[in-house]
Amino acid sequence: MGISLDGDADRIILCDEASNIVDGDQIIAALATRWKNKKMLKGGVVGTLMSNYGLEKFLKSQKIKFIRANVGDRYVKEKMKKYNFNLGGEQSGHIILGKFATTGDGLLVALEVLFALRKGKKASDFFNKFEKTPQILKNIDVKDKDVINHAKVKKSIRLVEKLIRGQGRILVRKSGTESKIRVMGESRNKKLLNKCVNLILNKIK
After folding, report:
1. Which one of 71, 78, 88, 104 is at 20 to 30 Å from 205 when CA atoms are compared?
2. Whole-model pTM?
């Protein structure tokens, strides 16, 4: 298994023995399953608005509660505290193991994973919990980010949410750093996904 940490080691990305990248969502799925089986999981899991839809569906299939927080580790931490959950994190690899710490710690996550694999289990078997749902992300340049609140845009978002319900999800948000609106959609039905994303894009442009 390969272990990669960022500069201050609060985020972690792994790879298995076949060099397949394992992101934060897959790490969370594996640890949530293990902790539930060991009766270590408290409450459920907190992800973010960017957590893959496949993770949400997988956890629900395992009867593990899943709640989304805004993007950012501090929002994950707030939700964990509010609902008294002890596992949460982001696709980017910022994972909080509430059983051991109150903040994200890549080294701690690495140790927990290594401990789970100590009896010779393959990393690919441990991590390959769910298939990612295909995702489209479009960033639209805008003069005023408040266009997201215009009636025609809100109406298109409501329509799309009805169309995609049960088959995926849609997320429309302002960029925190640029003059852009970000439109993200996830669904295995690629035709429906493209239709839903384009319906919103056409109202923002």
Report:
1. 71
2. 0.85
pLDDT of residue 177: 82
Range of the domain at 150: 135-204
Are 23 and 74 members of one domain? yes
Residues 6+ apart with CB under 8 A from 82: none
Is residue 44 located within the same domain as residue 119?
yes
C-alpha 205/C-alpha 190 separation (Å) is 22
Assess whether pLDDT exceeds 80 at residue 205.
Answer: no
Amino acid code (one letter) for 4: S
Same domain, 75 and 144: no
- Give ∠ CA 74-27-92 in degrees, rounded to 5: 45
Would you give the distance in Å from CA 72 to the centre of its chain? Answer: 11
Q: Where are the alpha helices (DSSP H) in the chain?
A: 24-37, 53-61, 73-83, 106-116, 123-127, 151-164, 190-204
Choose one of 127, 150, 185: the last residue of a domain: 127
108 and 141, same domain (yes or no): no
CA distance 112 to 110: 5
Within 10 angstroms of residue 72's Cβ, the number of other Cβ atoms is: 14
Q: Domain count for the chain, please give it.
A: 2
Instruction: Report residue 188 as tokens.
Output: 């295995």
131: DSSP letter:
P
